[in-house]
Amino acid sequence: MAKLAVSSKRKAVYQWLLARIIAGDFAPNTPLVIDELARTLDVSPIPIREALQQLEAEGFVVIRPYAGVTVSDLKPGMISEIFVLLETVEVISGRMACLNVCDDNLVEIERLLRQMDQVLDDPDEWSQLNAEFHKLICQCSGATLVTDIMERMLLHWDRLRRHYLEDVFGKRIDKAHADHWQMYYAIRDRDPDRLEAVVREHNRSALKDYIDHLHRSGYGDDQVPVVWSLEAT
């Protein structure tokens, strides 16, 4: 029995469920039975229901009246949607960061990048720091709504890459990390146009590699649609 030791039971249940959905412990379309979860976590059904409602709002579960709760489906074609959103949000946050970043922010970004330098051979650790990097740029931008969107998109991306892209993701880390340093230099130099160009190339080259991998894995064009040109503009 997994006893929760967090003051907010709803928050603890939410974090526990989300972590297992993203990790794939609860696979797509898996039924989630409230009473069973309550027994597993040693809580009443109330925080379970509240956490599931939040997860539904964020797109991680589906709640159907009289049919119960299931983990949301995860189709490979979602990668195009996620990368369109990530690119858009990264351009907005990056350009705003070029205008609003302070010296302390730059020190923090550089410190994080140097930490990432040390884990290039550890995809899971690098991925976690990658999310922190993109959220940090959002925070430097001062755009609260953009930060909220970024955090949600990064969670969906983490789930997708664990399910479909584990092998190819690790092979792209060196290139992706080099792009991150170029983003940092553009922000440091307060150059929003250069930042935007780096972000667009970063996302579109990644998406092209991931789509190529999915095609090699047997997914057709109808399953993995390309929603915009993969060439940076």
Topology-level CATH name of the largest domain = Four Helix Bundle (Hemerythrin (Met), subunit A)
Determine Rg (CA atoms, Å).
19 Å
* CATH fourth-tier homologous superfamily of the largest domain: GntR ligand-binding domain-like
Number of helices: 10
Helix content: 55-70%
The gross shape turns out to be globular
Percent of residues in β-strands: under 5%
Biggest sheet, spatial arrangement of strands: 1-3-2
Just give the CATH class of the largest domain: Mainly Alpha
Please state the structural category: mainly alpha
The SSE string, one letter per element, is HEHHEEHHHHHHH
CA-to-CA gap between the ends? Answer: 53 Å
CATH architecture classification of the largest domain: Up-down Bundle
- Compute the number of structural domains: 2
In round numbers, the mean pLDDT is 93
